[in-house]
Design goal:
The complex is a heterodimer of chains A (116) and B (111). Chain A is mainly beta. Chain A contains no helices and eleven strands. The chains are: A mainly beta (116), B mainly beta (111).
Chain lengths: 116, 111
């Protein structure tokens, strides 16, 4: 297993367009996370899944954002009607999940979005 | 919002010197973790310390945790050019399955 993979690595789009990012977690991991990171800041939590169930969403995740994890395997993050403020690195992470906490997260290389 | 705050924001040291960075957090935690991020890349887990632990070592890394002060420190000994990166602390609370990250410390190791 080569770790968490994300696609595409870079996406440039025009304001108002829709974009979709895909994340393939480590195969035996049941938890999958999406974070957003802007320049000079730490990752900000967006949402996470336990298997196929989306268990928590940040208030940062406006109604233009939707995430899915069908069948508890890969996940997609879609942003509709993109705005310039959506420009950021979108990071996916997965974990085996530990009792009483997040446990160690394994991150992908991220998908960098630039909205013109 | 970010739970942790790292200090300093940036650190520049000579190869072979030690690098120390601190993390303060606001609410009670279950675990505290440190991650490294090279420029433009994903984050890599370095070390996890539980709330009932005070100190932990892993290779050239030493982490301390003071829950009474809600703070942690990461020490990298005998730094190398390859240690140049941003370092983030991250916390989770009891029955909280997400990590909250600080803004990070950017470390530059000069050859």
């Amino acid at each position: 297993d080569t770790g968490v993979s994300q696609d595409p690595r870079h996406k440039i789009t025009k304001r108002g367009q829709n974009v979709t990012f895909r994340c393939d977690p480590i195969s035996e991991h049941n938890r999958l996370y999406w974070y957003r990171q802007t320049l000079g800041q730490g990752p900000e939590f967006l949402t996470y899944f336990q298997n196929e169930a989306q268990l928590e969403k940040s208030r940062l995740l406006s109604d233009r954002f939707s995430a899915e994890r069908p069948k508890g395997s890969f996940s997609t993050l879609e942003i509709q009607r993109t705005e310039q403020g959506d420009s950021a690195m979108y990071l996916c992470a997965s974990s085996l999940g530990s009792i009483g906490g997040a446990g160690e997260l394994f991150f992908g290389e991220g998908s960098r979005l630039t909205v013109l | 919002s970010q739970q942790g705050e790292e200090d300093p924001q940036a650190l520049s040291i000579q190869e072979g010197e030690n690098a120390t960075m601190n993390c303060s957090y606001k609410t009670s935690i279950n675990n505290l973790q440190w991650y490294r991020q090279n420029s433009g890349r994903g984050l890599v887990h370095l070390i996890l310390i539980r709330s009932n632990e005070r100190e932990k070592h892993s290779g050239r890394l030493r982490v301390t945790l003071d829950t009474s002060k809600k703070s942690s420190s990461l020490l990298i000994t005998a730094s190398r050019a390859a240690d140049t990166a941003s370092y983030f602390c991250a916390t989770d609370g009891s029955n909280d399955y997400k990590l909250s990250f600080g803004a990070g410390t950017t470390v530059t190791v000069r050859a």
